[in-house]
């Protein structure tokens, strides 16, 4: 195979003092953190769509990056060139996983039968590369938002024809995921929502979405998919109102429709902030509900109100992310997928590597610092002490469900005026985090 990234070496760990742009400063895959190698905590994954397909095009201009990889775009030759580029890229960075949409892999035909033949051909080629390199598929999905037929959604569409086409795409994408050994399957409903209630039956649409997911679970299990299905929450864009607004909304939907045994959540940092939450909040809500499945790693621009998908650079945010993951015991079937893209002006092959080096280092440093917070113990001790009045006596009875409103009312009457509940000491705790981050 002809080398595509000719001037870029294998990226190795050199430490925080290095000035080599093609080196990791913090990501040392074999470093032991809380008893496990860093690579086991950080199951990094390459997003096929942004890294191999994204050219920097936006609503105001065409792309700036050449992702032809010495082939003719929108051909099967190009599809295989992307495979060559992707596996060389992952191998040089030490990334062991990838994620894909169906139409990332091949140019879509007008005829789904022909598209499926193309998908079979390219996934045969991908399997050869996987065998040669040991790189694995983390999860797959179907792109049911780009094609104009999905203008009103896929599962939420008003058209049986479109709904059937969506079902066919899901069926094939599941088959490909099983073929490539993926341990997850994602539903991202970018158009599963509405712009106006004047033409929308919300109940009807949500029931149809749930039915599509139930059929996916049934079929997936029948062909040997034993991993998790994921929903990826997002509040809006491109539709004004999306049905999976945030973690709480998605969890409620799953439980309402009896899907919570097979589905977990794919939490994305940029989607969390668009919903008015922190990344940490969405991870915590998912974890305490037993729904934390996998992560899309990126960050948004707080001055821009849409999904900008920057590579992660905010160590405070990745520290809090890894704190939640460590406390939750990690991700069973999921990983850390870089659903992130270079800025429009960062258009070279070198920039592709720079983005991933930045993201991997930022998460690695976040992991190191999160472990230090846990080992330090002051945060956990403070939280435990803050709720200590519920550990004994009447408080313990509340927790066990053994008291009544009458008993609590009698207790309150004896108290007279309750004391303040104790200082939250937020500033002190934030100071602890800073002292660990910057020591």
Automatic annotation (TrEMBL):
**Cell location:** Cytoplasm
Tell me which Gene Ontology terms the entry assigns under biological process. D-xylose metabolic process
Gene Ontology, cellular component aspect: cytoplasm
The record's cofactor note says: Binds 2 magnesium ions per subunit.
Required co-factor(s) are:
Mg(2+)
State whether keyword Isomerase applies.
yes
Can you tell me which residues form the catalytic site? 101, 104
Positions of Mg(2+) 1 binding:
232, 268, 296, 339
Keywords of the record:
Carbohydrate metabolism, Cytoplasm, Isomerase, Magnesium, Metal-binding, Xylose metabolism
Question: In the Enzyme Commission scheme, what number(s) does this protein have?
Answer: 5.3.1.5
Q: Which reaction does it catalyse?
A: alpha-D-xylose = alpha-D-xylulofuranose
Instruction: Locate the residues binding Mg(2+) 2.
Output: 268, 271, 307, 309
- Domain of life of the organism encoding this protein: Bacteria
Tell me the enzyme class. Answer: isomerase
Gene Ontology MF term list: magnesium ion binding; xylose isomerase activity
Quaternary structure (record): Homotetramer.
Sorted alphabetically, which PANTHER family does this protein's record hold?
PTHR48408, XYLOSE ISOMERASE
Family indicated by similarity = Belongs to the xylose isomerase family.
- Full protein name: Xylose isomerase
UniProt organism field: Bacillus timonensis
Taxonomy of origin reads: Bacteria, Bacillati, Bacillota, Bacilli, Bacillales
Report which gene this protein is encoded by: xylA
């Amino acid at each position: 195979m002809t080398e595509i990234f000719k001037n870029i070496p294998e990226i190795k760990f050199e430490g925080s003092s290095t000035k080599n742009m093609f080196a990791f400063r913090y990501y040392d895959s074999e470093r032991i953190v809380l008893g496990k190698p860093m690579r086991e905590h950080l199951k990094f994954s390459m997003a096929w769509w942004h890294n191999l397909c994204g050219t920097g095009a936006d609503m105001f201009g065409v792309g700036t990056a050449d992702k032809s990889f010495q082939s003719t775009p929108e051909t099967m030759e190009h599809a295989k060139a992307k495979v060559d580029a992707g596996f060389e890229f992952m191998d040089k960075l030490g990334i062991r996983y990838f994620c894909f949409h169906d139409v990332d892999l091949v140019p879509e035909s007008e005829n789904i039968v022909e598209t499926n033949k193309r998908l079979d051909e390219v996934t045969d080629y991908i399997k050869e590369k996987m065998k040669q390199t040991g790189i694995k598929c983390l999860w797959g999905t179907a792109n049911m938002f780009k094609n104009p037929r999905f203008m009103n959604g896929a599962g939420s569409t008003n058209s049986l024809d479109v709904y059937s086409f969506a079902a066919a795409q899901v069926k094939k994408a599941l088959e490909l995921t099983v073929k490539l050994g993926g341990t997850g399957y994602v539903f991202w409903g970018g158009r599963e929502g509405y712009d106006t209630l004047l033409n929308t039956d919300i109940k009807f649409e949500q029931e149809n979405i749930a039915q599509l997911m139930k059929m996916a679970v049934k079929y997936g299990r029948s062909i040997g998919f034993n991993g998790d299905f994921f929903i990826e929450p997002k509040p809006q864009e491109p539709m004004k109102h999306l049905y999976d607004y945030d973690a709480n909304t998605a969890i409620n939907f799953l439980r309402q429709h009896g899907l919570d045994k097979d589905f977990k959540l794919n939490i994305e940092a940029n989607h969390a902030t668009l919903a008015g939450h922190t990344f940490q909040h969405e991870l915590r809500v998912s974890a305490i509900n037993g729904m934390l499945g996998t992560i899309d790693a990126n960050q948004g621009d707080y001055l821009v109100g849409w999904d900008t998908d920057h590579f992660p650079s905010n160590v405070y945010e990745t520290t809090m992310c890894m704190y939640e993951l460590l406390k939750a015991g990690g991700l069973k079937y999921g990983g850390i997928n870089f659903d992130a893209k270079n800025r429009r002006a960062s258009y070279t092959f070198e920039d592709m590597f720079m983005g991933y080096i930045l993201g991997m280092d930022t998460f690695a440093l976040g992991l190191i610092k999160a472990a230090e917070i846990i080992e330090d113990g002051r945060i956990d001790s403070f939280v435990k002490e803050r709720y200590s009045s519920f550990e004994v006596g009447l408080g313990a009875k509340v927790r066990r469900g053994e008291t009544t409103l009458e008993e609590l009312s009698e207790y309150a009457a004896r108290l007279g005026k309750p004391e303040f509940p104790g200082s939250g000491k937020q500033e002190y705790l934030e100071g602890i985090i800073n002292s660990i981050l910057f020591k």
